[in-house]
Amino acid sequence: MIRAIVTDIEGTTSSIRFVHDVLFPYAAENLPEFIRTNADDAEVREQLEAVAELADLSATDVEDIIEQLQTWIREDKKITPLKDLQGMIWQHGYQQGHFKGHVYDDAAQSLRAWHEQGIMLYVYSSGSVQAQKLIFGFTEFGDLTPLFSGYFDTRIGAKREESSYREIVTALEIDAGEILFLSDICEELDAARAAGMKTCQLLRPLDASAAGQHPSVNDFSQIDLACF
């Protein structure tokens, strides 16, 4: 019996194109001015210092830090301080109505139905927890964040590492076999399965070539929890 569902975002609940064609370019374009304007803010300063430590830069050289962050964005690095800063920039974009968080209609409907059935819902994404809350908080379907019991990001570990999913199991205090993990990425599903979770791969039409050795569906409406 599935008691909890942990879902990925990009390519699973939401379009990869939204993340890569809307969110990433917005952050890249607005990051320099955001950092220059807010470098003395305590929350921003904390992330800049983390970037400086990781990249062996001076924490006072804002321009070098900006250049490093832009490089990481181009390389699509999953680095926690970068993700946190992107989340801060996206928050401004959402609040100003520059864009809405993309969530597939089938995902929104199923998440609501599962929540009504008493199934606990969680998110695990390489984007920061803040970014996760924003994408679900500003959707065309309204604020979906009340559906979720919790969020996990790279602070708990890399998404392709078995240990990350074991940490999630421990945090949820539920038997691993009663947790279903949803993702479009085989390596993530492999790691979750190794940790004892049930798995299901989302194969949206553009991702059909990525099929692996996991139960798979084309959208959330095809997920039958009784089969896991």
Explained architecture:
This protein is 47% helix and 11% strand. The protein has 2 domains: 4-15 and 100-227, HAD superfamily/HAD-like (Rossmann fold), CATH 3.40.50; 19-95, Transcription Termination Factor Rho, Rna-binding Domain, Chain A, Domain 1 (Orthogonal Bundle), CATH 1.10.720. The chain contains 8 helices and 6 strands; from the N terminus they run E-H-H-H-H-H-E-H-E-H-E-H-E-E. The N and C termini lie close together (7 Å). The protein has helices spanning 16-38, 42-55, 62-74, 80-95, 105-116, 129-137, 162-172, 186-194, and strands spanning 4-7, 120-124, 150-152, 179-183, 198-202, 216-217. It is globular and about 55 Å long. It is α/β, with parallel strands linked by helices and 228 residues long. The longest helix has 23 residues, at 16-38. The model has no long low-confidence stretch (mean pLDDT 94).
